[in-house]
Write a structure and sequence with these properties.
Number of helices of chain B: 8
Shape of chain B: globular
CATH architecture of the largest domain in chain A: Orthogonal Bundle
Order of helices and strands of chain B: HHHHHHHH
CATH topology of chain B: 3 helical TM bundles of succinate and fumarate reductases
CATH superfamily of chain B: Fumarate reductase/succinate dehydrogenase, transmembrane subunit
Structural class of chain A: alpha+beta
Order of helices and strands of chain A: EEHEEEEEHHHHHHH
Structural class of chain B: mainly alpha
Largest sheet of chain B: none
Strand content of chain B: under 5%
Distance between the termini of chain A: 60 Å
Number of strands of chain A: 7
Strand content of chain A: 5-15%
CATH topology of the largest domain in chain A: Fumarate Reductase Iron-sulfur Protein, Chain B, domain 2
CATH superfamily of the largest domain in chain A: Alpha-helical ferredoxin
Radius of gyration of chain B: 19 Å
Radius of gyration of chain A: 20 Å
Mean pLDDT of chain A: 95
Shape of chain A: elongated
Number of strands of chain B: 0
Number of domains of chain A: 2
Largest sheet of chain A: 5 strands, mixed
Strand order of the largest sheet of chain A: 2-1-5-3-4
Oligomer: heterodimer
Number of domains of chain B: 1
Helix content of chain A: 25-40%
CATH class of the largest domain in chain A: Mainly Alpha
Chain lengths: 246, 215
C-alpha cells in the first residue's frame, strides 16, 4: 500500500515549524506505524535529508514514549494502543495521514514530533514519598488488602505516562495521569499516611505546569492505551475534598 | 475566586450548576399556572406573591449570586483551558472521542446567558420596574404573540438542553459521586433536566402562540 504523510517538522524548540508532505510507497499493511516511519527515515537519510525525529523505545506498548497525534487521534485510531502497536492496515492505500506532536503548553515541542514530557515527572515528584517499614521483607499478606482494591490500584498503576490523555483533552488537562497516580496510592494502606498532602501537591503542580482543568468529556479514557477509567478522576475529586476539608 | 484550584473550581461549578437546576424546577412549576384556563387569575396571584414576599426576595439574591458564581468560574476555567494549548491541532478528534455537548459548554453557556438577559428584560424588568403597573399574565401573552420571539425561546430551550445534557451528569463526576450502581440513576436524573424540563418549558410559548394565531 501507498500512503501520503503530512508530518510536522520543527528544527528546534524555539524555531517555528510547519507541515511537510512525504509520499511513502510499498508499505506493508502488517508494519507498525513506527516501522513505516523508519522506512521513510531511511529514504530521507539516503537522499541526504534530515530524518524525522520521533521518540520510541520498547516498541511493545509499555514504555509510553511513542506518542504521536495521527489524524486527530492520540496514538492513531483504535482503542487501547500506543503508536508502536498501530498497524498500517488501519489505513487505506492512498490515504493522507496527518502526523502531529502532542500539543500542550506543558509539553513543548523539542524537535519535529518529540515533546518534552518532564512536566509529568515534576507532578510525580511533588507527590512525595510513601512511608513504608524498612528492614526485612514483610511476609506475604501481612497487610491485608481486599482483592477488588488491589485490582483497582493495579489498574491505575498500569499508567505508562505517555501523555495521550493530555494530548487528546480539549483543555490539555493532565487529570487522568494525576488521578491514576493519586488513586493508585490512595487505594493502598502504604500510601495512606501521605494521601492528603499528595493529592493537594500533585494538583497544584499540575496547574503550575500549565495543564488545564478536567471538563469530564471522557476523551482521555478513550485514548488511554491502558484504558484507565474516569473512575480514578472521581476518586481524585473525593481525595481532594477530604484533604481540603480535613 | 481565581486562587481556588481547578478541582475546587469544578466543585463549585457543579454545586452552583445543580442549584441553578433546582431553580429551573421551581420556575417551571410556577410557570405551569400559565396553562390553567382561567384567564391568568391563578398565575397573577402567584406572580404577585413572588414579587412581594420577603423570603422570595432574599432567595432571589442568592439565586443571582448562584448565576454570578457559575458564570465567573466558567469564564475563568475557559480562560485556563484556552491557555493550556497555545498551538492548536491541524486535525481535531471531534466527535470520535467526546460529545459535542461536553466540548462546547462555553458556547451553550454563553447562549443561555444571552437568553437570560433577554428574558429578564422582557418579563422581570417589565413586571418589577416598568413605568406603568402591568398585569403579569398580559405581559406573557403579549410577548408570545410574536412568532420570532417564540422561535427564539424554543431555540434557547434547545441550547439549554444541550448545556444540561453534559452539565448535570458531569457535576456528579466533579463532586466525586461515581459508582456503577449509581450510573443509571444519574443518567435518569440527567435526562430529566436535559430532555423533560426544556420540553416542558417549550410548551408555554407554543401554547400562547397557538391561541394567538388560531385560538
Amino acid at each position: 500500500m501507498n500512503v501520503i504523510l503530512k508530518i510536522w517538522r520543527q528544527p528546534s524548540k524555539d524555531t517555528p515549524g510547519g507541515f511537510e508532505t512525504y509520499p511513502v510507497a510499498d508499505v506493508s499493511p502488517d508494519m507498525s506505524f513506527l516501522e513505516m516511519l523508519d522506512v521513510l527515515n531511511e529514504t530521507l537519510t539516503q537522499s541526504g535529508k534530515e530524518p524525522i525525529a520521533f521518540e520510541s523505545d520498547c516498541r511493545e506498548g509499555i514504555c509510553g514514549t511513542c506518542g504521536l497525534f495521527i489524524n486527530g487521534r492520540a496514538h492513531g485510531p483504535g482503542l487501547g494502543i500506543t503508536t508502536c502497536e498501530l498497524r498500517m492496515r488501519r489505513f487505506k492505500s492512498g490515504e493522507t495521514i496527518v502526523v502531529e506532536p502532542w500539543r500542550a503548553k506543558a509539553f513543548p515541542v523539542l524537535k519535529d514530533l518529540i515533546v518534552d514530557r518532564s512536566s509529568f515527572d515534576r507532578i510525580i515528584q511533588s507527590g512525595g514519598y510513601v512511608s513504608v517499614n524498612t528492614g526485612n521483607a514483610l511476609d506475604g499478606n501481612t497487610l491485608p488488602i481486599a482483592k477488588t482494591k488491589a485490582d483497582e490500584a493495579f489498574d491505575a498503576a498500569t499508567c505508562i505516562g505517555c501523555g495521550a490523555c493530555v494530548a487528546t483533552c480539549k483543555n490539555a488537562s493532565a487529570m487522568l495521569f494525576t488521578a491514576a497516580k493519586v488513586s493508585q496510592l490512595a487505594l493502598l494502606p502504604q500510601g495512606e499516611v501521605e494521601a492528603q498532602d499528595r493529592v493537594i501537591n500533585m494538583v497544584k503542580t499540575m496547574e503550575l505546569e500549565g495543564f488545564g482543568h478536567c471538563s469530564n468529556t471522557g476523551a482521555c479514557e478513550i485514548e488511554c492505551p491502558k484504558q484507565i477509567s474516569l473512575t480514578h478522576i472521581a476518586r481524585l475529586h473525593r481525595e481532594y475534598l477530604k484533604a481540603t476539608f480535613k | 475566586m481565581n486562587n481556588l484550584s481547578c478541582v475546587l473550581k469544578k466543585w463549585v461549578m457543579a454545586l452552583s450548576g445543580l442549584f441553578l437546576c433546582s431553580f429551573l424546577v421551581v420556575h417551571l412549576s410556577g410557570n405551569l399556572f400559565l396553562l390553567n384556563p382561567d384567564g391568568g387569575a391563578l398565575f397573577n396571584q402567584y406572580a404577585n406573591f413572588m414579587s412581594t414576599n420577603l423570603w422570595i426576595r432574599v432567595t432571589e439574591i442568592i439565586l443571582a449570586l448562584g448565576f454570578v458564581v457559575h458564570i465567573v468560574l466558567g469564564m475563568l476555567l475557559a480562560r485556563q483551558a484556552n491557555q493550556s494549548r497555545p498551538v492548536a491541532y491541524a486535525v481535531s478528534p471531534g466527535n470520535e472521542t467526546s460529545s459535542f455537548a461536553s466540548r462546547y459548554m462555553w458556547l451553550t453557556g454563553a447562549f443561555v446567558l444571552f437568553f437570560l438577559v433577554v428574558h429578564l428584560k422582557t418579563f422581570f424588568y417589565t413586571m418589577r420596574f416598568g413605568d406603568v403597573p402591568h398585569v403579569p399574565y398580559e405581559v406573557v401573552k403579549a410577548a408570545f404573540e410574536s412568532p420570532i420571539y417564540v422561535i427564539f425561546y424554543l431555540i434557547s430551550f434547545f441550547v439549554l438542553g444541550w448545556h444540561l445534557r453534559h452539565g448535570v451528569t458531569s457535576s456528579f463526576q466533579s463532586l466525586g459521586i461515581r459508582h456503577p450502581k449509581l450510573k443509571p440513576w444519574i443518567h435518569i436524573f440527567g435526562g430529566l433536566f436535559w430532555f423533560v424540563i426544556p420540553l416542558a418549558y417549550s410548551v408555554i410559548p407554543l401554547y400562547f402562540l397557538y391561541f394567538h394565531m388560531w385560538g
